[in-house]
Design goal:
The protein is of the alpha+beta class and 163 residues long. It has one domain: Pleckstrin-homology domain (PH domain)/Phosphotyrosine-binding domain (PTB) (PH-domain like). Helix content is 31%, strand content 36%. The protein has a 4-stranded antiparallel β-sheet with strand order 1-2-3-4. Strands 5-6-7 form a 3-stranded antiparallel β-sheet, with helices on one face. The longest helix is centred in the N-terminal third of the chain and has 20 residues. The N and C termini lie far apart (41 Å). The mean pLDDT is 87.
Length: 163
């Protein structure tokens, strides 16, 4: 049996509040928040891990926002990608610790990452050593600011020149 302390419960509640703030800022529909909450619970249960950060990869189309993938991150430097998360249960798990060999940023209409405009967009690609995988992220508008934060915290900090 796993026991959870009150402090752990408080930290988890605070973390989820931060997620809800993020979802609100990027104007994520309630239906998608429900899907994300379900995916979070599934991954935490399947992998016996506590997820501490989330990122929703999105692009803007003429028809509106398109959500490409969902990313969760754990405190032990693992990334969990949920591909086509709205309709599929397709998960990849990556160990990021010093395994990032290449990082690419493409930005448009984004002069100040702290104050992106509605027209701002950003794409990030990084290569994970050992599994020959490229991680792709995209963001539009205010979500660009969150992509920068996730990139710094989990990908740029784990770049290594080791072979």
């Amino acid at each position: 049996m796993i026991y959870v302390t009150n402090k752990e419960k408080q930290n988890k509640r605070r973390m989820k509040e931060n997620w809800n703030n993020y979802f609100s800022v990027i104007r994520l529909p309630e239906k998608l928040i429900e899907i994300i909450t379900k995916k979070c619970s599934e991954i935490e249960s399947l992998c016996s891990v506590e997820l501490v950060d989330v990122f929703v990869s999105n692009v803007r189309k003429e028809s509106g926002e398109e959500y490409k993938s969902l990313w969760f991150f754990s405190s032990d430097e693992k990334a969990f990608e949920c591909k086509n998360f709205i309709t599929d249960d397709d998960y990849d798990i990556l160990c990021l610790h010093k395994n990032v060999a290449y990082f690419n940023i493409i930005k448009k209409e984004l002069d100040d990452v702290e104050n992106p405009s509605n027209e701002s967009s950003m794409t990030v690609n990084c290569y994970i050593r050992g599994i020959s995988m490229v991680c792709d992220f995209s963001a539009t508008g205010v979500n660009c600011k969150y992509l920068v934060a996730i990139s710094k915290k989990y990908y740029i900090s784990n770049m290594s020149s080791e072979q």
